[in-house]
């Protein structure tokens, strides 16, 4: 079993379904990957204006996407779930009987944040040296 701690700065994407949810859209969660997908599907179903007031074409696309997501949750469709947290506040953990055995389906990639990611987090304007001096 895999557990995910998804912070509010974590985006989620599913490349096979051309789906991406930006950070802060889902809020923070501690769940399984299935739980994250179920929460995303529920938010899409319950979002005001997405189903009832949206034009017909948008409704059809959303309904089709939710059908595909349901196939994923039923185990009928394989996907790659990508969690990207530029703040580094999210984590994924495999809870196997032997924690020394790697999970072949789990990949963690560490990277340097881009300028845009730092800007979104408010880090580019942060004064880290000489902050006690007057400007």
TrEMBL record:
<comment type="similarity">
    <text>Belongs to the ZPR1 family.</text>
</comment>
<feature type="domain" description="Zinc finger ZPR1-type">
    <location>
        <begin position="2"/>
        <end position="94"/>
    </location>
</feature>
<dbReference type="InterPro" id="IPR004457">
    <property type="entry name" value="Znf_ZPR1"/>
</dbReference>
<dbReference type="InterPro" id="IPR040141">
    <property type="entry name" value="ZPR1"/>
</dbReference>
<dbReference type="GO" id="GO:0005634">
    <property type="term" value="C:nucleus"/>
</dbReference>
<feature type="region of interest" description="Disordered">
    <location>
        <begin position="112"/>
        <end position="135"/>
    </location>
</feature>
<dbReference type="GO" id="GO:0008270">
    <property type="term" value="F:zinc ion binding"/>
</dbReference>
<keyword id="KW-0479">Metal-binding</keyword>
<dbReference type="InterPro" id="IPR056180">
    <property type="entry name" value="ZPR1_jr_dom"/>
</dbReference>
<keyword id="KW-0862">Zinc</keyword>
<dbReference type="InterPro" id="IPR042451">
    <property type="entry name" value="ZPR1_A/B_dom"/>
</dbReference>
<dbReference type="Pfam" id="PF22794">
    <property type="entry name" value="jr-ZPR1"/>
</dbReference>
<protein>
    <submittedName>
        <fullName>Zinc finger protein ZPR1</fullName>
    </submittedName>
</protein>
<keyword id="KW-0863">Zinc-finger</keyword>
<feature type="compositionally biased region" description="Basic and acidic residues">
    <location>
        <begin position="126"/>
        <end position="135"/>
    </location>
</feature>
């Amino acid at each position: 079993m895999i557990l995910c701690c998804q912070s509010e700065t974590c985006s989620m994407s599913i490349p096979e379904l051309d789906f991406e949810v930006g950070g802060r859209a889902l809020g923070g969660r501690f769940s399984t990957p299935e739980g994250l997908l179920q929460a995303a599907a529920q938010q899409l179903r319950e979002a005001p204006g997405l189903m009832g007031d949206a034009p017909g074409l948008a409704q059809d696309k959303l309904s089709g996407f939710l059908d595909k997501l349901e196939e994923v949750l039923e185990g009928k469709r394989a996907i790659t779930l990508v969690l990207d947290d530029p703040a580094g506040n999210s984590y994924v953990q495999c809870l196997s009987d032997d924690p020394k055995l790697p999970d072949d389906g789990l990949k963690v990639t560490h990277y340097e944040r881009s300028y845009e990611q730092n800007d979104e987090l408010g880090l580019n304007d942060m004064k880290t040296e000489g902050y006690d001096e007057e400007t």
